[in-house]
Structure formats: C-alpha cells, structure tokens
C-alpha cells in the first residue's frame, strides 16, 4: 500500500509536488514523445497521487492529473475537436484489483459478458469516416481536442481510405473509429538497427570531416521502445517520413456515429471488420471471471509471441446499453479496465546504447 501522510497539510504538500511532477512527465510523454522515466515509474507516481486523493478527496480537484486524459496538443499540428470525447482507462495491477472492479460492476449490472482484448502499446488515434470515406485522422490529445494528422494517417497501409459496405453492414453516414497505431517489434528493431548502421557511416565520415576542419554531421537518435518509435513516426510534420516507417493500426472502438447502432462491442467489431478496418484476431467474449483470468494469464505468458508489444489486457463490458448505464468519469469509462502486466527487464540491448547528438 502507498504511504499517505495522515496530516492533511503534509498530504497536500506531497500532493502538490506529485501533481507537478506527473504533469511534467505527462507532457514529455504525450506531447513531446520524449519520456524521461519508465512507465512503471510513472505509474508508481500516479498510484501515490491516487492514494492521497482517496484518503483526502478534497485534493482530487479538476486540475489534478488524476482527472486528465493524455497531454496537450503540439503546436506542430492544427488542433481538432473530436465529435465524441476519447478516454483513458483505469488500471488494475493485481488479481485483487481486478476482482474489486468486477465486484463494483456486478453490484450494478449482474451477469454481463466480458470482452477481453490485448492492450497494444502504441498511441490512440481517432479516424472519422463520412459516408464511408476517411475525412480525418487525429491523435487523442487531451481527449476533447486532438492533433490533425490526416496526411500521416493516410500513409498507413492498414487504414482504408474507403469503407466497404455490405448488405448486413451498410456503410454509416458518420462514424468515429478508435484504435491504436503501433510499430511491430520487428520493425522497431530494424528501424534502430538501420539507424545504428547509418550512425557508423556518419561517424566514419565525421573522421574525415574533422581532418578537413568541416562541421560534423549529427548522429541519429535511437528510439527507446516501439511505442516511442510509433508516436515519433506518426507525429511528424512531414508525412513522407511517416510513410517511410512501418506503422500499423488495430481498431478497438467507436465514438460518435450516425447510421450505426451496434448492440454489443463484439458485434460492432464484426461491422468494422466487414468494412475493411483492421480489427484484432485476439479478442474473446467471456462469461466468467475465471475465463477472464485465464485470458490474462495466457497472454501474460505469451506476450512475446505477439507481433507487437502489449502492456496488458483490456476488459470491456460487451453490451453497449450496459456500457451507457455505467458511464464514465472525466478520465475513464466505468465499463472497462486495463489489467497491466508487471514491468519487464529491458530486453533490447539497443536501448542501452547511448547516442550523442
Ligand atoms: P493507458 O495506456 O493506461 O490506457 C488507455 C489507452 O490504452 C487508450 O487511450 C488506448 O490508446 C490504449 N489501448 C491499447 N489497446 C487498447 C484496447 N484494446 N482498448 C482500448 N484502449 C486500448 O492510458 P494513457 O492515458 O494512454 O496513458 C497513461 C499511461 O501511459 C501510463 O500508465 C504510463 O504507462 C504511460 N505514461 C508514461 C509516461 C512516462 O513518462 N513514461 C508518462 C505518461 C504516461
């Protein structure tokens, strides 16, 4: 359990400090693609903040990081308002925390089926289709306002320009599709290996330049992990750079819609799939908590057999009417939870190689 000062003034002082620290890392990670601490370290700061707010609820003010989604939008892009807000997810870090969520939900809506899927470690993107035509791609931003990255999104091969309507699933007049843009582990390793090779070439060339008294060429920075590589590749002012990077997308949700009324999340996925959108083949609808636990354990053991990095499993109530009933807080839906796997030892040796720029 987290250490929470009993004394209110001490708690408030610690809260103020933590909030400032978290806000700084939130912007570095989401807005600048330049995190300075690991996700586990960030999550620990956030858990301490949440524990203080639980003990002293008056500290959970609107401007607390516990009430925010993502980060500010970067000035590199035009900002766009989403038709419907994008959220973050609440986390469970242990079977006990998962049970607590299940109990909260079942107290209100008993006997619901759970849709389990992988939590892809990339960045959230909102695609807008009007009459089946892709009109906009935007980052999540702060949930309300995102960055317009339409030209970048159009370079991703798995994102269709046009949806294919079928008899069963006609193309809707308007729909926002939510999903994760990611870089596969293989492409990430290749990108960094290419950069290392290029850096060797630059270093050799710099030897000659030095001898000739010329200005030295800068080395290319390496990406820390696939998530960072995906975000850095997608959020480029020049979409030809994005086009040169191997990015993919998996869709897992829908926002505002007209002419599309799925009754269940899983049924919605069937429509998305029929339209030609890249749905996941890993999701499962399960009726029991035991089933959910097995799913979590299975992918905990097999997380490296997946082509992309995952940092957990997302569990959603499948029935959309029930999702509506449960609703959301300012930060996250009450009808879903992310079960996060424990942090791993750093696996790539590339990550440890310091590059001077
Ligand atoms: P989150 O990553 O915990 O969960 C929400 C996000 O999960 C969604 O927005 C979506 O992008 C993603 N997601 C992946 N698969 C999904 C699926 N199947 N269904 C629904 N959503 C799915 O929350 P967040 O708000 O994006 O970011 C917070 C997290 O980011 C932190 O817990 C931490 O891990 C990391 N972070 C790290 C730093 C740092 O400095 N290292 C700073 C800020 C945030």
UniProtKB/TrEMBL annotation:
Full-sequence portion shown in this chain: 8 to 364 of 749
Similarity annotation: Belongs to the NAD-dependent DNA ligase family. LigA subfamily.
Record function comment: DNA ligase that catalyzes the formation of phosphodiester linkages between 5'-phosphoryl and 3'-hydroxyl groups in double-stranded DNA using NAD as a coenzyme and as the energy source for the reaction. It is essential for DNA replication and repair of damaged DNA.
Protein name per Swiss-Prot or TrEMBL: DNA ligase
Gene Ontology annotations for the cellular component aspect, listed alphabetically: cytosol
Gene name for this UniProt entry: ligA
Superkingdom classification of source: Bacteria
Sites where the protein binds NAD(+): 39-43, 88-89, 117, 140, 180, 316, 340
GO molecular function: DNA ligase (NAD+) activity; metal ion binding
Organism in which the protein naturally occurs: Stackebrandtia nassauensis (strain DSM 44728 / CIP 108903 / NRRL B-16338 / NBRC 102104 / LLR-40K-21)
Active site: 119 (n6-amp-lysine intermediate)
Source lineage: Bacteria, Bacillati, Actinomycetota, Actinomycetes, Glycomycetales
Keywords, in A-Z order: DNA damage, DNA repair, DNA replication, Ligase, Magnesium, Manganese, Metal-binding, NAD, Zinc
GO process terms (BP): DNA repair; DNA replication
